[in-house]
Structure formats: C-alpha cells, structure tokens
Design goal:
By secondary structure, the protein is an alpha/beta fold. The protein has one domain: Ribokinase (UDP-N-acetylmuramoyl-L-alanine:D-glutamate ligase, 3-Layer(aba) Sandwich). The protein contains ten helices and 13 strands. The chain has a nine-stranded mixed β-sheet, with helices on both faces. The longest helix is centred in the last third of the chain and has 16 residues.
Length: 293
C-alpha cells in the first residue's frame, strides 16, 4: 500500500488580528490584521504537502472560492478534492492573537455541509492513514456519518487518526457523545486542554493513561511542555522544539502533519513526535496556520 494520507475536514478563511497592546473594550485598539487560508484539517494537509508527503484533502468551500482554495492547496503539494457549495460561503474564523494565546470567533459556513461520502472508496483504497478532526462531527451527516467513515477506512486497511479540534467544541458537543463518535480510532492527538476536558483529569500522565483505555495510541501535546505518548501500556515523553512564538495558530495541525509523515514511514512513536515538534516550531514562527509557499 502506498504511503498516502487522506485528510477530511474544514477549510477556513482566517482573519488574524494581532493587537499591538492590550485590547481596550468599547473603543479602538491598534492591531496588525491579515488574511490567511486555514481550517484544521486543511492546515494539516498543507503541512504534509510541504514535507513532500503524498496527501489528499477532501472538503467543502463556497462556489466563488473553489478555484482559489484548490490552487492554494495544490501549490504546497496537496491533491485537492474540494466540493463547491452553491449557496453557502466558505467558513471564516476571526483569530485574535495575544502572545501565546488565541481567541477564535467561528462561522463554519460551507463546512456544515461536509459529507463523509465525499471520501470515496477509491481514495480510501489508496490511503495508509485517514486523518480527521473533531469539527467534522458538526455537519449534516452527524456522528453517524463520521462513525461510518471510520469503519469504511478501517475496512479498506487504512489507519485512522483524529485531532479533537478544541476544548470548547468538545464541551459543547458533550464528552461522552464525542468519545462514542470517535470510537475505533487508532491514534488520538488531544492538546492538554482537550485531554483535561475529555477525562476530567489534570495530570498529563493520568490523562493519557485514561484515554489509552479507549485508544491504542494517545499523543498529548502540551506546547512548550512537549509531548506525552501512551501506547501498549507504556508512556514516553518527547520535548518540544524551542522557537520564538509569533502566532500559535495551526501549531497542533502542523504537529499532526510532522508526526504522521514520520509515522507512516517508521512507526517509531518517539521519532514521530520529534518530527511533529519540529514542524510545530516552524508553524509558531510565522503568521497563519499553513506553511508559506
């Protein structure tokens, strides 16, 4: 089977605002404001493409944006399978960056019409890994469509990884409901905040141990604190790669890309986490969630 990764999920137009000072309520605050292509799954695909991986991306955009987003993905080496929605606009997120912290205001737009059946049998037959994000649960097909896609991928021989998406999303969706929807996934990439919401625990080692009772491999990312991995009854820690933080947007997406790119070639978890940390360090050093082509 070829080392091919299929990603499925959101495409977003990011509006990135970086205030020059603390935000003053009810009046103006000077800021740098830029526009970038984003979306967690699309970001991961873009970083994978930039690393030279064979990667396909499946998603939905507004009809007006089809050519632009297809071109942006293909420019970094992604084979794009975008569907144009005739009436809904491409999803948009306003990201307010304050140091290492982000506040995100989200309109999912055409992403609400994501259809797991757009990931065809032919694509799955070529896939070594199917990578999903938790946000893919928020579409017309719901959890049933998500679960069916995971089952189809596994039947085709692909391994399935999931990036939960965000702690706020999990809390709103419901922890038990979320865990039930992603049952059967082999590789889970929660952040520390997401892990705390998913388990009700605070200690990283306890978080991965609890999640490892449901998922074969758990990779808990902690920013500058590095990575904790639970697999097959063992736990290992991998340090972060130090880098000046310009914008943390997409760091987790980039980590997933670096990890998966190494994992499909070596299956070595420590090496994969180190590779992910290196790509994440590149991501935080630039504005926006994707590599600059």
């Amino acid at each position: 089977m070829p080392d091919r990764i299929v990603t499925f999920g959101d495409v977003i137009d990011d509006v990135v605002a970086m205030p020059y000072e603390a935000i003053r309520k009810d009046t103006d605050t000077a800021a740098s404001i830029g526009f970038r292509a984003g979306g967690s799954a699309a970001n991961t695909a873009a970083w994978l493409g930039s690393l030279g991986a064979k990667v396909d991306f499946v998603g939905v955009v507004g009809a007006y944006d089809l050519k632009r987003h297809t071109g942006l993905l293909e420019k970094v080496g992604v084979t794009s399978h975008l569907r144009a929605h005739p009436t809904l606009t491409t999803g948009t997120i306003v990201i307010i960056v304050e140091g290492e912290h982000r506040t995100m205001l989200t309109e999912r737009g055409a992403n609400t019409e994501l259809d797991p059946m757009d990931v065809t049998t032919e694509l799955l037959a070529e896939a070594t890994v199917l990578h999903l994000t938790g946000h893919s649960l928020l579409n017309a097909a719901g959890s049933e469509g998500f679960t069916a896609l995971v089952a189809r991928a596994k039947k085709a021989g692909a391994r399935v990884s999931v990036d939960p998406g965000s702690a706020g999303f999990i809390a709103d969706y419901g922890v038990e409901k979320f865990l039930a929807a992603i049952a059967g996934v082999e590789l889970l990439f929660p952040s520390l905040e997401e892990g705390r919401v998913l388990t009700g625990l605070t200690d990283p080692s306890e978080i991965v141990a609890k999640l490892a009772t449901a998922f074969p491999t758990v990779v808990l990312t902690m920013g500058a604190g590095g990575v904790v991995i639970a697999h097959d009854g063992t736990t290992l820690m991998v340090p972060a790669v130090s880098s000046p933080v310009v914008d943390p947007t997409g760091a987790g997406d980039a980590f997933c890309a670096g990890f998966l790119d190494e994992w499909i070639r070596s299956s070595d978890l420590a090496r994969s986490a180190s590779a992910g940390a290196k790509v994440a360090s590149r991501a935080v050093a630039i504005i926006g969630g994707r590599p600059h082509s």
